[in-house]
Write a structure and sequence with these properties.
It is a single chain. The protein folds into two domains: about 1-195, 3-Layer(aba) Sandwich (Rossmann fold), CATH 3.40.50.170; about 205-300, Methionyl-tRNA Fmet Formyltransferase, Chain A, domain 2 (Roll). Helices cover about 25% and strands about 25% of the residues. The protein is built from eight helices and 15 strands. It has helices spanning about 15-20, 45-55, 70-75, 95, 120-125, 160-185, 215-225, 295-300; strands at about 1-5, 25-30, 35, 40-45, 60, 80-85, 105, 130-135, 145-155, 235, 240-250, 260-265, 270, 280-285, 290-295. A hairpin with a 4-residue loop joins strand 3 (about 35) and strand 4. Helix 1 (about 15-20) runs parallel beside helix 6 (about 160-185) and helix 5 runs antiparallel to helix 7.
Length: about 300
């Protein structure tokens, strides 16, 4: 089949590569405009753009999907099917109708749970034990289309969102190719979602990273995992911002005020929380510095039990 692909971040790359390597013809790629990326904020193309360039696939990067030339280009490509994977914007209803067989989406959750822009991060932040990928029919409503197929994956209690997302991006490839074959044969079965069970996974914001030490230890740990690698969980020590990259739940309880350091070193800093245990910090990043294990952090900072992490 002739396929047009919509995608932007690294998550979408395995799906695009899988389609290019298949018997189908990727006739065009739609990805978001070049933007400043990384620590140096250099303007670069998206991971999907760079993949398409490598394989000489035609690309468009519209600022607005509703611009008439976008629909004209899609019509010119004459796709049988549209495939969307983390494109980053809602696709207009009239555009969904351009491909002969409509459009399908590779979504990183077990729908109807975690509809929205940050399904993996939100699932990890919520401490779920299982997630997955759903291939669904694209409709105007956000992630509400009928489900064509799913695959599940266990989430280990110390995994970070980038690890889970990376794995889901590859798990989704054979699922996607299988659904495309079913659509081509006319054998695909579409199951409607139960909207009553839906949950929303909104885009992450920097403000969500500030640690509330009155929460249970496991809740804080899950936020550290889910907010990695961006925007990160963080706290303040003596007025200086400190990013918490990796943590562990310590089952022991303590009576100190939440945020109080109760044990130090050599490889962790143990902090009291609201209840249900304590939190051990094992990898940190001081403001403007590199990420480092706690052992290296302690080599340059004198920290004693009784000190307390606070807000700004």
């Amino acid at each position: 089949m002739r396929i047009v692909f919509f995608g932007t971040p690294e998550f979408a790359v395995p799906s695009l590569e899988g389609l290019i390597a298949s018997s189908h013809d990727v006739v065009g790629v739609v990805t978001q405009p070049d933007r400043p990326r990384g620590r140096g904020q250099r303007v670069t193309g998206s991971p999907v753009k760079m993949t398409a360039l490598t394989h000489n696939v035609p690309i468009i990067q519209p600022n607005r999907l509703r611009d008439p030339e976008v629909g004209h280009q899609l019509t010119t490509w004459a796709p049988d099917l549209g495939v969307v994977a983390a494109y980053g914007r809602l696709i207009p209803e009239d555009m969904l109708l351009i491909p002969r067989l409509g459009m399908i989406n590779v979504h990183a959750s077990l729908l109807p749970q975690y509809r929205g822009a940050a399904p993996v991060h939100r699932a990890v932040m919520d401490g779920v034990k299982e997630t997955g990928v759903t291939i669904m029919r694209m409709v105007p409503a956000l992630d509400a289309g009928a489900m064509l197929s799913t695959v599940t994956r266990r989430v280990d209690p110390d995994e970070t969102s980038d690890e889970v997302e990376r794995d889901l991006s590859t798990l989704g490839v054979p699922l996607l190719l299988s659904v495309i074959e079913q659509l081509a044969e006319g054998s695909a079965v579409e199951r409607p979602q139960d909207d009553r069970l839906s949950t929303y996974a909104p885009r992450l914001t920097k403000d969500e990273g500030l640690i509330d030490w009155t929460l249970p230890a496991a809740t804080i740990h899950n936020r550290v995992r889910g907010l990695y690698p961006w925007p990160h969980a963080y706290t303040y020590l003596n007025g200086a911002r400190l990013i918490v990259l990796k943590s562990q739940v310590d089952a022991e309880t303590s009576v100190e005020l939440p945020g109080t350091i109760v044990d130090v070193g050599p490889d962790r800093i143990v902090v009291s929380t609201g209840h249900d245990g304590r939190l051990a910090l094992v990898e940190l990043q001081p403001e403007g510095r590199r990420a480092m294990p706690v052992r290296d952090f302690l080599a340059g900072h004198s920290i004693q039990p009784g000190a307390r992490f606070t807000g700004p």
